[in-house]
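Hi there, hope your week has been kind to you so far. It would help a lot if you went through both lines with me. No rush at all, and the record is pasted right below:

***
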Amino acid sequence: MSEGGTTGPLLYAVFAAVLGMLQFGFNTGVINAPREFIENFINDNYSVNSDTVFSVIVSIFAIGGMIGCPLASWIADKRGRKFALIVNAAFGVIGAIFMGVSKVSTSLAMLIIGRFLIGINCGFATTASPTYVSEVAPVRLRGAFGTVNQLAVGFGMVGGQILGIDVILGSNDGWPWLLGLAVVPSAVQFLMLLFAPESPRYLLLVKRDEEQARKVLKKLRGTSEIEDEIKDMHDEDLAERQEEKFTIGDLIRIKSLRTPLIIGIVMHLSQQLGGINAVLYYSSTIFVNAGLTERDARLASIGVGSMLFIMALVSIPLMDRLGRRTLQLCGLGGMTLFSILMTIAFFTYENNTTMSIFAVLFTLLYVAFFGVGPSSIPWMILSELFGQGARSAAVSVGALVNWFANFIVGLTFIPLSTALGNFVFLPFTVLLIFFFAFTYFKLPETKNRTIEEVTALFKK
């Protein structure tokens, strides 16, 4: 049987790739805690509005992400998946060094440039890592390995939040170290990738190097029985050569590609516009508003990251058992319910410790349901809805939309919260109801279907 299970070389390759996603989680979660210390640094050295500058530091990350995505897919197609991941690691090392030395050299510009470069690094990772992982993993484990990307994000986020508490690096002296620590995953990734294999699919279908592809595949599968898998790749290649290469413009023009593209885009929007980033970027603020003390709010924030991590673990076995569609619907339904309960709790917590606790509990459950499906499925779904000819373009459009929505939420949550007060989650609730309905009516199940079978659905 060529559908081999996990082997040492496969786990090594996947681990090397997902370090990029760990970086993404770390840099999303890490900026929450040191806010006041970074603002102190800005106020001590510059006469500018530190709130505005801090917003720039937070959101420039997403601008970098928007640049990193298309760049990664271009390099991955031209020079290979592995080379794209190596470039990604290099951006991470440089960005982390810039952030780490920004205080010593009293340079706000270095801090902003560092965040921008680390944004490019994370944008690269969100495109290159899932592509590489889905191409080295055996078909029946693709869903489970796809979830490993999300596990790495959760793990990085918890790490960033824990290191940011006051007793560790959450201080005036500690924050440059906190941000500079991002050098570690990137440096380790860079070294590991030097010994990781290229994607066998890329070798076979793009480089036309069948001998090398077989060699790599035998090593990854730990067996010489790889004929079925090579044949599947050739079949897909044959089908693809009859299909031409598609650009982003084609995806919009051709109906059998536009439908899955719209589905993929809505899945990505459901991940960001369901309000999760409001919770991730500003969880401490939300918990303080719900009546917790500053210190308890920071600790409760670690609960948010931990919940994501735990749910990513829980959803790994479910992904291929229950399927993407079921998990996505379950996740969006739960998020809708708990965003409504959070709003009720925000109204009743004053002088009411019980409701304060419930507000935190509902927030954590809302995050838990996000972890069930919406946290990982959008990153997997696009590569499962498109054949080889259109996959790269589709994945990069999805990632671009995801980063843009991330940017919008990061930028607007504080003004939104000022304007709407306790109703701040209502716009998200309305959007979640829409996303649930859309998924219910439009998303096909991709579990245990080959890519040909899925693309055939949209040609009918």
Observations:
- The chain has a mean pLDDT of 88.
- The first helix runs from residue 8 to 29.
- The radius of gyration is 22 Å.
- The chain is about 80% helix and 0% strand.
